[in-house]
Write a structure and sequence with these properties.
Length: 464
């Protein structure tokens, strides 16, 4: 058993660590945006925080939709049906283009929400401009995630890592030039962040296309050997799998982003502190998410091979590794929260409130790790609707309603705190919502993985 654990853990890690570095680099773009504007002034930071809240909702929803590619390709690879992979990939690129264009339109329209947040006029103007400019990168991101799913499902994660690191280097460089106006360039502040990120996503897409076209390892399944018109039946099949994942991601990220929008009424300090705490939490979250992406691939490959026992073993091993990391990360966040806040901003009030919110971030590490790895393992089984319903219930049935009561203390509520708890109240609701989601998704993974094994035993495919 120990040998089996070591072997499978090594296989998971082989996929996960380049994905992790790639994810960290991608999220690092947002971190650099927040950190670099945080050292400019609170107004520019608030504009980035509000704009990034909308950007994150749409970006992660698109990422969820495109995760269908991971599951579909992994099953084909496990079944050694390599001849179908190029066709699926060409259709997934068409799906990515359409999804990205729709997301770009939705992102621009979503800035209307700023009209209802009682923002300072200058913050409102800068936040809306940030969203309008950064939206140019959305079609590129969607197509990039299609190719991302393709290459990770083939266990080829090196390009994900290197291209994302290149994108991060580009983002930081252009941020430095355009936020502060070095070398005679205009000092654009928050808008400079948007230019850097939006342009960087197109460069990352181009780099991924070039890598796949020329690397020998993709020769057998290269999607760029011929052109192919969109096939609606194929795209619809992937959307049927991907849309529930997108809605699942939307439920979680929109809950966190909604908190950033709702605390805006309390001033630039709470909204800035909330964004910093959320930004750092997102950075830490990349570890369990990367393990989850590796799980989707490994579970899908095992099921493609017809080995349901291996799929179940891989699922629970991945969850266990993720929970172990969560214990370590929660401890480190608690100990070093003051140093973390200092890295983001020099504003004393923002640093004080951020340190308080990071305690909440430490508390929900376990439940967050549990829910993301369990849901990714379930996706490896090509099941996406139940995780979607669980997330919608956990975040919109519990996290946001409870957070709103505690954070806003509305007059019409019969039970509410004496004074609004602002950001701390919302984060209390998020902790409870994540805990509910984690518990239910673990229970569902236990059920579906066990049922697949029992069905295989009943049909005589494996011994009882």
């Amino acid at each position: 058993m120990k040998t089996r654990i070591r072997t499978e853990a090594a296989a998971l890690w082989q996929i996960a660590w380049p994905v992790l570095i790639g994810q960290l680099a991608t999220v690092g773009m947002g971190v650099s945006d927040v950190a670099m504007t945080g050292h400019l002034n609170a107004e520019e930071l608030a504009a980035v925080a509000l704009g990034a809240s909308l950007w994150a909702i749409v970006l992660v929803s698109v990422m969820g939709i495109m995760m269908a590619v991971n599951a579909v390709i992994a099953h084909e690879v496990g079944a050694e049906s390599f001849q179908r992979v190029p066709h699926i990939m060409r259709q997934s690129l068409w799906m990515g283009l359409g999804t990205g264009l729709i997301a770009c339109l939705m992102l621009n329209v979503s800035t209307l929400v700023f009209d209802y947040l009682q923002l300072a006029p200058e913050v409102h103007r800068k936040a809306a401009r940030f969203v309008h400019v950064i939206s140019i990168g959305m079609p590129a991101f969607a197509m990039y995630r299609a190719l991302y799913g393709y290459t990770t499902s083939l266990n080829q994660t090196k390009p994900v890592m290197l291209i994302a690191l290149g994108g991060l280097a580009f983002n930081i460089t252009i941020n430095w030039l355009l936020i502060y106006g070095h070398f005679g360039l205009p000092a654009l502040g928050a808008t400079g962040c948007a230019v850097a990120t939006g342009t960087g996503l197109w460069l990352m897409l181009g780099a991924m296309v070039l890598w796949i076209r020329h690397a020998p390892v993709y020769r057998r399944t290269n999607p760029f050997t011929q052109r192919e018109a969109p096939s609606w039946p194929e795209i619809r099949s992937m959307l049927r799998l991907g849309l529930p994942i997108g809605i699942t991601y939307f439920a979680e990220v929109s809950a966190f982003s909604a908190v950033g929008l709702l605390v805006a009424r309390f001033g630039v300090v709470p909204v800035s502190a909330n964004q910093i705490a959320l930004n750092f939490s997102s950075l830490v979250f990349m570890v369990p998410l990367s393990i989850g992406i590796a799980l989707t691939t490994r579970v899908g490959q095992a099921l493609g091979e017809g080995d349901v026992q291996k799929a179940r073993f891989v699922s629970w091993l991945g969850v266990s590794i993720s929970l172990l990391f969560a214990v370590i990360s929660a401890t480190l966040i608690t100990i070093f929260r003051d140093q973390i806040t200092a890295a983001y901003t020099s504003d004393a009030e923002v640093r004080r409130l951020t340190a308080e919110l990071l305690i909440f971030a430490a508390v929900f590490q376990l439940s967050d790790a549990a829910q993301v790895t369990a849901s990714c393992a379930v996706r490896g089984y090509k099941v996406t609707r139940t995780p979607m319903l669980i997330h919608l219930m956990a975040f919109y049935g519990f996290a946001l309603p409870l957070g709103s009561v505690l954070g806003l203390a509305p007059d019409w509520m019969p039970w509410k705190p004496a004074t609004p708890m602002a950001a701390q109240g919302f984060w209390t609701g998020l902790v409870i919502g994540l805990t509910i989601a984690g518990a239910l998704l673990l229970a569902y993974l236990h059920r579906i993985s066990g049922n697949r094994v029992r069905m295989a035993v009943k049909s005589g495919k494996i011994a009882g």
